[in-house]
Amino acid sequence: MAADLGAILREAAAQIGHATSCSVIVRVRDGLTRLASSDARAAACDDAEVQDRRGPCVLAMDQLSGVLVPDVATEDRWAAWTAAAREAGFRSGAALPAYVADGVVAALNLYSDEPDPWDGDALVRADGYVQAVARAIRERGL
C-alpha cells in the first residue's frame, strides 16, 4: 500500500509542478499517521505535524476544506510544523482533505520551495490526487 501511495505522490508532485513535494496523513478516529511521502523533506514536515497533532493538514481534516499557507515565513499558527517546513527549505504549503469512510479522513499536503505557487488549476489537480489516495485506502485498506 505504501509503495502504491508513494507512486501516486511522486506523480502528483510532478504534475502539480512548482517544485512541489507531497505527503499524505490519514486520521482514523483520533489517531494520525503519515502514510507516504514523495520525498524526505515532505515526510519530515508531516512527521512534525503528526507528533504535535497540529498543522494545516489537521485543520483541513477537521473542517473538510483546504488550507493554504502562502508564506511559511509569516505563518504563526503551528510552531512545530512551521519550524519543520522552514528547516526543510519550504516557502509555502497547502493541505487538501478527502473523506475516506466513517471516522477516516486523509489529507494531501503540498510543499513548495516557491512562495504562493499554486493557482486554481494546480489545486484542482491536487484535489484529484487526494481523491485517488482516498479511493486507494478504501479499496486496499491501510
Observed structural traits:
142 residues, alpha+beta, Beta-Lactamase, five-stranded antiparallel β-sheet, 27% strand
Overall description:
The chain is of the alpha+beta class. The protein has a single domain (2-140), classed as Beta-Lactamase (2-Layer Sandwich). It is 47% helix and 27% strand. The chain has five helices and five strands; from the N terminus they run H-E-E-H-H-E-H-E-E-H. The protein has a five-stranded antiparallel beta sheet, sandwiched between helices. A hairpin with a 2-residue loop joins strand 4 (92-101) and strand 5 (104-112).
Quick rundown:
This protein is of the alpha+beta class and 142 residues long.
Radius of gyration: 13 Å
Mean pLDDT: 92
| Beta strand % | 25-35%
* Large-scale geometry: globular
The poorly predicted ranges are none
Secondary structure: helix percent? 40-55%
Secondary structure blueprint with pairings:
Blueprint: H1 2-16, E1 20-28, E2 31-37, H2 40-52, H3 56-63, E3 67-69, H4 79-88, E4 92-101, E5 104-112, H5 120-140
Antiparallel strand pairs: 1-2, 1-5, 3-4, 4-5
Helix pairs in contact: 1-5, 2-4
